[in-house]
Amino acid sequence: MNFTFTEEQQLFADSVRRFALDRLEKDALKRAHDPRFPFDVAKLMSEQGLMGITIGEADGGQGGSLMDAVIAIEQIAAVCPRSSDVVQFGSFGPIRTFAEYGTPEQKARWLPDLLGGRAVMSLGMTEPDAGSAATDLKTTARPDGSHYVINGTKVFSTFSPDAAIFLIYVRFGPGVGGIGSVIVERAAPGFVIGQPSAFMSGEQWCELHFDNCRVPAENVLLGPGGFKKQMSGFNVERIGNSARALAFGRYAFSQAREHASTREQFGRPLCEFQGLQWKFADMAIKLEGAQLLLYRAAANADRGFPSAYETAVAKAACNQVGFEVSHESVQAMGALGYSRESLVEYCMRRCRGWMIAGGSVEILKNRIAEHVFDRRFDQRRRHADAAE
Ligand SMILES: Cc1cc2nc3c(=O)[nH]c(=O)nc-3n(C[C@H](O)[C@H](O)[C@H](O)COP(=O)(O)OP(=O)(O)OC[C@H]3O[C@@H](n4cnc5c(N)ncnc54)[C@H](O)[C@@H]3O)c2cc1C
Known about the structure:
The protein is an alpha+beta fold.
């Protein structure tokens, strides 16, 4: 067992860090407060070979491992937290499921623009009545000649104000086995995109309404029975979510550490007060522990899809630690940490969202408990109870 990067990984990490310092550091604060997708960063990253790290070379990606993509998130986020969303989009998000299961025609049509930083894709899974219970989704896809007709509503989709294409989870038939997905283009007839709303993080999302929206049958990504495949693709997304949460925690920690080393009160640097030293020691323990869990899940997956259990453990740990550490970092920096000039409060707000998004901490713990007890716990009411 080895707890250090290989020489190749270290060289990659160093080169990504240099790129981030040269091209991204200057506008890091401005970018964090811009709600829209940073296409300028996506184009720069495409030129730098940082889009599609986990996507095969035959599809225009870099043919790297999940671990390489985690390293890229860490190095970018350490300099410009917001820009790491672009690594997430290009290597972990719905694009990864799309590249895995798309037909050659679908990939030829959409991947060049997505990997070139010219277009972004949004994932529509959550609905007003189907959040954690994702398989309760009601959006339907009905065959009609050479097309499918989509009806339903999606909420909270990241990048929806800017996306050119949307990966929409739909119901072709009843039950979990009836769930699959289709690609919907922004201009599709019957597709209505609502006004942007904002999350606490400042990111925007729009309601997506499908009102007899017609999409060609060749836009089906996964037909009925595709839900399990989609969820294994979703574990990749969860690794990226974990990596960003931890990296944002680390960013906040390093800002707070610098502050505590230099800021003096009562005639002494803050770091000389034991009350603060122990805060920093606790933060270091949490960060190091979550880091190992993240690397285990990513390294074991290599180029493939990570294990659901290791991913759940890593995401629950990284989400909680990212938030706790950035929250404590705000405290250690006083009013400066709480102000919009420091980026530390931004890290805290972003980390808070990841405790809900992409499998909330509670849902992950349900998954972990199933592993602990080696049995499935159905979250739904039993039929007999429901009939009462
Ligand atoms: C920043 C952000 C980005 C997002 N991006 C996207 C996106 O791109 N695409 C998309 O489709 N959706 C997206 N979402 C939505 C996200 O997937 C849902 O918010 C999530 O699935 C939870 O659903 P919900 O908000 O409806 O909460 P609910 O499911 O209503 O849950 C409310 C609370 O109850 C808890 N809970 C629910 N069921 C259980 C249970 N069985 N056991 C224990 N606790 C439970 C939850 O953990 C939560 O704390 C995003 C959300 C956020 C915050």
